[in-house]
Amino acid sequence: MLRLNKLTKTYKTGDQALKAIDLEIPEGQVMALIGPSGAGKSTMIRCINRLVEPTEGEVWLAGTELTHLGASALRQARREMGMIFQEYALVERLTVMENVLSGRLGYVGFWRSFLRRYPQSDVDEAFRLLDRVGLLHMADKRADELSGGQRQRVGIARALIQNPKLLLVDEPTASLDPKTSRQIMRLICELCRERGLAAIINIHDVALAQMFVQRVVGLRFGAIEFDGAPDNLTPDVLTTIYGEEDWEATIEKVEGEEDIEAAE
Amino acid sequence: MSHRELDDMLGKGWRKPPMVTSPLLRWGLILGGVAYLIAAVLTIEVDWSRVYEGLDRGWQFILSFTRPDFVTRAGDIWEGLLESIVMTVAASVVGILISIPIGLGAARNIAPMPVYLICRGIVAVSRALQEIIVAILLVAIFGFGPLAGFLTLSFATIGFLSKLLAEDIESMDRVQAEAIRASGARWMQWINYGVQPQVMPRLVGLSMYRIDINFRESAILGLVGAGGIGATLNTAFDRYEYDTAAAILILIIGIVMALEYLSGIVRAKVQ
């Protein structure tokens, strides 16, 4: 579904953020991308939808090569890729509904979006998604009135209303408390399953990633160090990815998970 | 080791490190600055006997504010005021409408290099030419009257508003705009959703402020023949009708204060 071919990014300063990454993600697979800060995780997902221009290599999404697309074709391709951001990146002075509907911008013309006259099907879908993430009653609130967890739910709805084939998720839980983090991760993974979406999730929290995803890729200095099932993440593996540290506490399945789930 | 360092530092005061590290240079700069200030003040010549005479005239001028004359020249004042308001409104609307695209073009983070340079060039030219100079030029071209004033104010508005709008756009939150771009939005949609909401309060505030400035400027532009209340004011001074001049100044102050009040309300609404 998504294939990266020798994807390379060299910044003007000479820093190599990605070193010829090869990666393939089949349909419907949720993959976690772990690695230390500066390993190139953010750069990698931004190179896929070209918010950052890759220097070399290819990105194939469902039979289309993305790195050489012109402006208009790139916009078409971006509609297929929903993105979820670390600090939510909601436009704070717009309402929740406008933020969600902004995910349809790739599909509607300028005047329609300018006058906020979206097709009824889009509006219905926005309501359905807001309901699904539990925020229907917040539709007309301004985005800056929401809490962190609520904002991220809006971010998820915004990405999903694009009707994407792939979700690019950049540190979705980095600014959230542990419980909300789990809820958000669970929501993302559930939605991916419901809709058969593939996803790349950048995440710092290794234990959280293990809990929810089917595959983990570890990045270090812009190269893939590990690629496998979450159960194969041993202390040795984490040492190769992150460097020396006592890893036992990190991998251990966090106790009391069931209690939290039951309490919801 | 580090423990000892901490113990050494505890109980001691802390000063912010000075901006200029070398004490020689620092004191040199301070003393040089003071010396220049003293020398500069000494070069200003004051003719104290002239000041003594002038005090009386100034006092007359101030006294006239206690008995402003709105009546004698009511027709002229009304006409001039109306002309000024028309000039202000027209120039502000036109100026703001032109400023927005130029402001977008002059923001480095959203405009490509050639567009950026052109728009910054326009801003620089508009800001370099003082209103009075532009007004004198335009009066020479279009003749006396409010048309020259209107064009002058529109031109000045572009330099002011585009520059400040561009700077606000440059300091906006990049991630919010990035998120909109990631949805596949076209350029205009991106501006409408990702940039406009972030800069709108500032744009409205600046526009209100510019209307305020334009009104005050319209009083000055009359002095060089560009119409408006300034022409009436100038005539009043020429005829030594300080009470009429006082009436005009009071009206200007009143209108500016009303605009300020209105601007506060509008800005609170869009925040």
UniProtKB/TrEMBL annotation, chain A:
Keyword Membrane recorded: yes
Gene3D superfamilies hit by this protein: P-loop containing nucleotide triphosphate hydrolases
One function term, GO molecular function aspect: ATP binding
SUPFAM superfamilies: P-loop containing nucleoside triphosphate hydrolases (SSF52540)
Span of domain ABC transporter: 2-246
Entry protein name: Phosphonate transport system ATP-binding protein
A Pfam family that the UniProt record links to this protein: ABC_tran
Entry keyword set: ATP-binding, Cell membrane, Membrane, Nucleotide-binding, Translocase, Transport
Alphabetized InterPro entries for the sequence: AAA+_ATPase (IPR003593), ABC_transporter-like_ATP-bd (IPR003439), ABC_transporter-like_CS (IPR017871), ABC_transpr_PhnC (IPR012693), MetN_ABC_transporter-like (IPR050086), P-loop_NTPase (IPR027417)
Species assigned in the record: Cribrihabitans marinus
One Gene Ontology cellular component annotation held by this UniProt entry: membrane
Matches recorded under CDD domains: ABC_PhnC_transporter
TrEMBL record, chain B:
NCBIfam families per the UniProt record, alphabetical: PhnE (TIGR01097)
Residues covered by the ABC transmembrane type-1 domain: 81-263
Major localization listed first in the record, in broad terms: membrane
Keyword field: Cell membrane, Membrane, Transmembrane, Transmembrane helix, Transport
Family, per entry: Belongs to the binding-protein-dependent transport system permease family.
Gene Ontology cellular component annotations, sorted alphabetically: plasma membrane
InterPro entries: MetI-like, MetI-like_sf, PhnE/PtxC
Cited Pfam families: BPD_transp_1
Membrane topology annotation: Multi-pass membrane protein
Listed GO MF terms: ABC-type phosphonate transporter activity
Location in the cell: Cell membrane
Protein name per Swiss-Prot or TrEMBL: Phosphonate transport system permease protein
Transmembrane segments: 24-44, 85-105, 243-262
